[in-house]
Structures are given as structure tokens and as C-alpha cells.
Amino acid sequence: MSRLPTVAIVGRPNVGKSTLFNRLVGKKLALVDDRPGVTRDRREGDASLIGLDFRVIDTAGYEDHDAQSLPGRMRMQTEAAVAQADVALFLVDSRAGIVPLDEEIARWLRASTTPVVLVANKAEGRSGDQGILESLSLGFGDPVQMSAEHGEGVGDLFEALLPLLDKIEAENVDDDEDDDRLDGPLKLAIVGRPNAGKSTLVNRMLGEDRMITGPEAGITRDSIAIDWLWEPAGGEPRQVRLIDTAGMRKRAKVQDKLEKLSVADALHAVDFAEVVVLLLDATLGLEAQDLRIADRVLEEGRAIVIALNKWDVAENASSLFNGVKRALEDGLSQVKGVTVMTVSGATGKGIDQLIQAAFDTREAWSKRVGTGELNRWFERAIKANPPPAPGGKRIKMRYVTQVKTRPPSFVIFGTRVDQLPASYERYLVNSMRKELGFGAVPVRLSLRAPKNPFDP
């Protein structure tokens, strides 16, 4: 199986890199706003350009700052993306013309070994003619003239990339044995409040500084998906699709437009995850916002694992752990016994156990119960605790069937089941979790009465 060639989009802030990224992947994956510096981490996606398939990387705007500052750390991420890419798309703003920072980026790119395609963006109409002429001085030949926002010039970009990507794809052929041996990737989203250490944990898992981290809260804005091969000690490697998300603060505190977009993006990532790790800051304990996030995850039907991060610096560890478990039992009444783990993104302790717990949780979330086992449970549950008889009329529960998995969902058919109290429904769901092996994953239960043929 051929490895998809990789194309990195680079340029100074606000030249349209994320707009081009969205155009190439055919979806609005990257956050776009008029202000510069929206993108901070590298975002990757599968692109298809007139039948030419490749992996595209959206990078942060390249700025000249100290390496220890946030813009400096963003620049280091961009440099790493170009070093790993097969081709770099160097975007300039044709309407603004060439500025000193463009010239600095050009010097850096000329010193790299990655082939460069110069793209003059925002070239619709005649407003970009002067900037297009100025771009010839950068030393990359004639630019591809296009408008990422309006889709103009896509054919010219295709012609520029085709000879480069065809050559790379022919040279890079991967062995596909792992694809045959491994199960589907675990889609694992990491969520939590700002500064809980989500990006630090992801970097530790990957063994590289893939995500920008630092003491500033709210560095991550986009939800970033990364493919990772987890290699547990003494076990078979397994594929994981890690999704790092922006921190989610209390809704009333979220005023900035970009933060609203980031939170919406994080919630969107939850929708596409299989298992969600809610990361707590062990130095702060469990807060009301953590419970709100957990409740949202469960409402979406996703399996959840709670991880206490920064465990290496936590004080009164035993009482803290027990206190969090008690608070979860009280605060998440719809699901009892959620798995709680302790980890350290700084040291890596507990990561293997966390990933294994996530795989185990996905297995329960995906479980389908055999008809015989389901019927036997149903009979035992009703015999142990018969349904009530409101107004002296018995509620007859005839049979149950599983209609779907992920999350496991069931329908019970019977007469007058619309009068079944919520407490009895909770009894049935809790009994399912305990006896059928669903643990703390969400379980959906619907009640259906057969239609009366004499009803009008």
C-alpha cells in the first residue's frame, strides 16, 4: 500500500493557509478568522485535488520571535512540519505584496531540502498583479496564482504539484502487514478544562513535541487528530487516532469569538470519537465544569474514561482520588462506576494503563449481546423486580431486542410501557450494565407498545 505524500502549507500569518487547507480537504476543519495567528498547532487532513491524493498539513503563521515564546514555539512546529513534508506550499498574499517576513521565510525554505511551490493567494481580479510580480524576487520561479477562498487557480496548483507528488508516491511504498493484523484505530479524544495538560499528555504519548505546550492557558485552538501506533510492553502494537482538543471553560466565561469556535470544534471532535478521556488537573481536583463536560460526553453516547493528570505533583493523593470517585458517583448519576485513572503527562506514568482502559471501554461500548443471553437476563430482571401496576393495571413487558451498538441500544416491547416509571427504567439499565458486561458505558433503552388495531 502506497504512503500518501505529504504537503505542508507555510507562510506568514493571515495569508490564507487555513482557507487553502479547508479547500483542499473539502471540509471546514481548520478555524478561519480575519485576525492573524488563529492556527497554532499543525492540523492534518486527507486532500484530493482533481484526483491527486495527498496528506496536507496546515501550519501556524511563521513569525520571528524568541524560541521560548508562544509564537516562537509555533514557528518550531512549522519548521518540523516542513522537515517531515515531501512538498511545501509557500503562500504569499498577492494583494498585500511581498514584505520582509516573506523574504525571511523564503531564505529559510531555500536552505531546506523540501521542494517548494510558491502560491500567490488572494489573486482574484487584478488587485494582486503587483504582488505577483514582486513574488518573483523570492527565488522560486513563477507563482501559482489562485484564490483559496473562491477556488480559483485550483487547476494550476494541480499542475504544479503533480510531477512532484507522482515522483514521491512512486518512491514511497509501505508494507501493509500491519493493516492486515491490527484492528481499526481507536478514535480517542482528550478533553478537559484549559491547562489540564492535554497537549502535554499527547506529546508524551507520541514521544515528540507534536503539540505546542506552555504555561499559558488555551494554547490549543483547533482539535488536532494524529495517527499513532501504541506499542504496549509485551503486547501487540495497536492503532490509535488521538484527538487533542481546546480547553472547555464554563459557557458564561467564553466571550471571545475564537474561543467559542474552539469549544464548538472540541464538541464536534467528541461526536466523532469512540472513547473520550476527560483529563482533570490533579492539583485542582474535580470541579463543576468537569462534570458538565462529562455529562455532555455521555449525552452524545460516547464512552468515557476519567484521568487525573499531574499525579506526580499531586498532594494528599489517596484522599484526592477517593474524593474524586465519590464526587463522580454523585455527579454522574446516569452512569455509575466510570473508570478513573491516574497519569502524568510530564513523566509518562500511567499512560499504558490509560490506553488499555480506553480499548477495554471501547469493547464494552461496541458489544452486541446474543439473543439467548439477552432473553435470560430479561427474565431474571423481571422476576427479581416485577414492574409496578399503576391504577391496578399490570404493565406487561413481553420481550427485548438490541437494535444497535456504539452505544448499546435496546428496545423493550410490552403493553402500557408508557406508564413505566423512570426509576424502573434505571433499574433495568443498571442491571444490564452489571450482568451483561457493559460497565460504565452509556446504554440507551426505549419502550414500545404494539399499536392497537382498533385505535382510529
Automatic annotation (TrEMBL):
Positions of the EngA-type G domain: 5-169, 186-366
SUPFAM superfamilies to which the protein is assigned, alphabetical: P-loop containing nucleoside triphosphate hydrolases (SSF52540)
Sequence intervals crossing the membrane: none
Record bears the keyword Chaperone: no
Keywords, in A-Z order: GTP-binding, Nucleotide-binding, Repeat, Ribosome biogenesis
Binding site for GTP 1: 11-18, 58-62, 121-124
Entry's Gene Ontology molecular function annotations: GTP binding
GO terms of biological process kind: ribosome biogenesis
Binding annotation for GTP 2: 192-199, 244-248, 309-312
Keyword GTP-binding included in the entry's annotation: yes
InterPro entries, alphabetized: G_ENGA (IPR031166), GTP-bd (IPR006073), GTPase_Der (IPR016484), KH_dom-like (IPR032859), KH_dom-like_a/b (IPR015946), P-loop_NTPase (IPR027417), Small_GTP-bd (IPR005225)
Family matches, as PROSITE patterns: G_ENGA
HAMAP family for this protein: GTPase_Der
Function, in words: GTPase that plays an essential role in the late steps of ribosome biogenesis.
Family membership noted in the UniProt record: Belongs to the TRAFAC class TrmE-Era-EngA-EngB-Septin-like GTPase superfamily. EngA (Der) GTPase family.
Assembly and interaction partners: Associates with the 50S ribosomal subunit.
Record's protein name: GTPase Der
Species of origin: Sphingomonas oligophenolica
UniProt gene name: der
